[in-house]
TrEMBL record:
Organism of origin: Neoarthrinium moseri
Protein name: Uncharacterized protein
GO cellular component, one term: cytosol
UniProt family annotation: Belongs to the D-isomer specific 2-hydroxyacid dehydrogenase family.
Keywords in alphabetical order: Oxidoreductase
Domain D-isomer specific 2-hydroxyacid dehydrogenase NAD-binding span(s) in chain numbering: 125-307
Any single Pfam family the record assigns to this protein: 2-Hacid_dh_C
Length: 353
């Protein structure tokens, strides 16, 4: 009996060779994509170059995107045999996951693998925006004694401890729950949140978290706002002029989600006016281009989309994508279950069989 085919896009396995050889390849035949631009990839799908494959496997989020966005143009060309698209990475704004669901194709991301790293980065950002660590680092790196002394004196007059302040979380998912726990336990912060779906009583009690039924209601009480929402049509420019107007004067903003969730021009105005006293951005609107104006601001902490960038994250992204396929695709290529980290469950379940 022939094995189900898996279409592997992007670079080869790097970290989980034993599992790949002894578990994954024992059940599946893996075919690598060598069509490294959109036009040739589309042609390959039309010609059924990869056969009737059962899954798409993308183990590394920094490779495997050579065909561009997975929109209707690509999705309609997939064979009916496809059961799941399993990808590394937490974000999925480059894939129309609902369109996949309508075709009865699961989309599973790397949720969970990066939770620890991203929540740790959020904790670093909280400390940085409250204590003005970036301003201090920049002054120290000048190696100028006058700058050193001036900044040493200034920092103590403009900084605060996070303890007792309200951390306002937008989107209470697995990552932000970890961040909330760490900020509450280690820093003594008060946890408030807004989400379209309210958490259970048990989760709210565990985090001692206060729910707000609207975004502006949360923004009005938060001393520091941390963003944890996926990027989609509803969340692009979510934090813009209206949102900044709703914030407390002197509040702080952290974004480890996706750059376009925050309108950078509105953020720059809010920083200049003092409405926002500091910001921490791991992601950027026109990434990898960082705003040159934000880069000049000493009260803005900037990093290069590395919130999840730990080796542990990479290892588990690669492994969990395989495990998602193993959970869904049987020996004969049919469905045997649901993925471990489904993203498009609602669209998948609503689609006709």
């Amino acid at each position: 009996m022939s094995k189900p085919i898996i279409l592997h896009i992007g670079e080869p396995i790097k970290y989980n060779q034993d599992y790949y050889d002894n578990e994954f390849c024992k059940r599946f035949r893996v075919v690598r994509n060598e069509c490294l631009d959109r036009a040739s990839f589309i042609q390959a799908l039309k010609e059924k170059k990869f056969g009737d494959f059962s899954a798409i496997y993308r183990p590394h989020f920094q490779t495997g995107g050579e065909m561009g966005d997975w929109n209707e143009e690509l999705i309609t060309l997939l064979p009916s045999s496809v059961r799941i698209f399993a990808s590394a990475g937490a974000g999925f704004n480059w894939a129309d996951v609902d369109a996949l669901g309508r075709r009865k194709i699961w989309y599973a991301n790397g949720a969970g693998a990066s939770d620890e790293a991203v929540s740790d980065t959020g904790l670093y950002m909280i400390l940085s925006v409250f204590r003005n660590f970036t301003r201090s680092q920049l002054a120290a790196r000048t190696c100028d004694p006058d700058q050193f002394n001036a900044t040493h004196k200034l920092i103590a007059t403009i900084s605060a401890n996070p303890r007792g302040h309200v951390l306002g979380i937008v989107g209470l998912g697995n990552i932000s729950k970890k961040l909330a726990y760490k900020a509450k336990t280690a820093l003594g912060m008060k946890i408030h949140y807004y989400d379209v779906v309210r958490a259970s009583d048990e989760e709210e009690i565990k985090l001692d978290a206060t729910f707000h039924s609207s975004l502006n209601e949360l923004l009005a009480v938060a001393d520091c706002v941390s963003l944890h929402t996926p990027l989609n049509a509803h969340t692009q420019d979510l934090i813009s002029t209206e949102a900044f107007a709703a914030m407390k004067h002197g509040s702080r903003l952290i974004n480890t989600a996706r750059g376009p969730v925050v309108n950078e021009e509105a953020l720059i105005k809010a920083l200049k006016s003092g409405k926002v006293s500091a910001a921490g951005l791991d992601v950027h609107y026109h990434e990898p281009q960082v705003s040159k104006e934000l880069a000049t601001m000493e009260n803005v902490t900037l990093t290069t989309h590395i919130a999840g960038g730990a080796l542990n994250t990479r290892i588990n992204f690669e492994l969990n994508a395989m495990k998602n396929i193993m959970a869904v695709v049987g020996d004969k290529g049919g469905f045997i279950g649901e993925p471990l980290t489904p993203v498009n469950k609602k669209a998948f379940q609503s689609a006709s069989a």
